[in-house]
Write a structure and sequence with these properties.
about 325 residues, alpha+beta, seven-stranded mixed β-barrel, 9 strands, extended
Length: about 325
């Protein structure tokens, strides 16, 4: 694990140097979107709704709206706010552990001793265990002030960031205000059902069956050869973090210029130029059909230099399989 924060737990005059590690991780299989016809990656662009232009990240500000008015918050505005860079986990108070509603728990982090001697760390851990208390602490994490609970997990100290009280919604359901009569027999039968399912909680016995099946499906497809070359799923146009929307011919010219060089590139560029001229002659008719494709007549090795039209991608996929 890699430490995400380094500082010290402080309560009174006691200072406990620690390193902070994320205690949880997402085990979901990462999936992305592709075109169903040819497996090409789907690219998202940041479009301004007023002028329809693609906007670069450097020209994007944040904003708040109340439904009627919008307030733009610039980077300069945010820099003017006092940044939280404290390296202390300040203990505010010690509270009975059962007073913290689990609904308030957010992210969990392990604390590792960060000094030659771990005596202060062990002292704090044993103090919390013997008093059955949880420390409520304040800390600055990723430039935000966090409220957190510091408690013992096995033989490790950990902090769990807490939601602020106004972040927890109130459960107000009118249907629960109605009086419902439960008979003694119904309650007795319900208790019997509970008793029949009583067991010790063992987290290791529970697995994410959906993710397991998804991994099995992916492995089966790979084994059957039902896969595409990952590089082939990306278009030849390099990712543009904003700028004008360019047409196909301009994309081809830029791709050739950026991907090839030297004497060999000169010959290949010439060949591409001839193909471009042929495509240009049919440009007017292509626009009426919203991008009718020009069939590629080059070898597979040159396909990365000249971006195939959409209508030709299903053939490329068939060849890859």
């Amino acid at each position: 694990m890699r430490a995400v924060w380094k500082g010290a737990v402080t309560f009174g005059l006691v200072n406990v140097p620690v390193k902070l590690y994320s205690a949880t991780e997402d085990h979901d299989v990462s999936l992305h979107q592709v075109h169903d016809a040819d497996g090409g990656r789907i690219r998202y662009q940041r479009i301004c709704e007023i002028d329809g232009q693609v906007v670069e990240y450097k020209n994007i500000d944040k904003a708040y709206d109340d439904g009627e008015r919008t307030v733009v918050i610039t980077d300069e505005d945010l820099k003017s706010l006092p940044a939280e860079r404290s390296r202390e986990i300040e203990v505010v108070e010690f509270v009975p552990t059962d007073q913290i509603d689990p609904i308030m728990f957010d992210r969990s982090y392990y604390l590792e001793p960060d000094s030659a001697s771990s005596k202060a760390y062990v002292l704090l851990r044993e103090t919390l265990e013997s008093t059955d208390r949880t420390a409520i602490v304040r800390m600055a994490l990723r430039q935000k002030t966090r409220l957190a609970a510091l408690r013992v997990h096995g033989n490790v100290l950990m902090v769990q960031t807490l939601l602020w009280s106004d972040e927890v919604r109130q459960a107000a359901f009118p249907s629960l205000d109605e009086e419902v009569k439960v008979t003694a027999k119904e309650l007795d039968l319900s208790k019997q059902l509970v008793e029949s399912l009583v067991a010790e909680f063992k987290p290791d016995e529970y697995v994410d069956e959906y993710q397991q099946e998804l991994r099995t499906l992916i492995a089966a497809k790979l084994e059957q050869g039902d896969a595409l070359d990952t590089a082939a799923t990306f278009g030849e146009q390099e990712e543009d973090e904003g700028g004008e929307v360019i047409d196909l011919m301009e994309a081809l010219r830029r791709s050739i210029a950026s991907k090839r060089g030297g004497a060999d590139a000169a010959g290949e560029t010439s060949s591409s130029a001839e193909s471009s001229a042929a495509t240009s002659s049919s440009a007017s008719s292509s626009k009426k059909t919203k991008g009718g494709a020009t069939k590629a007549k080059t070898k597979a090795s040159s396909s990365k230099a000249e971006k195939p039209e959409k209508s030709e991608k299903p053939k490329a996929r068939k060849a890859a399989s």
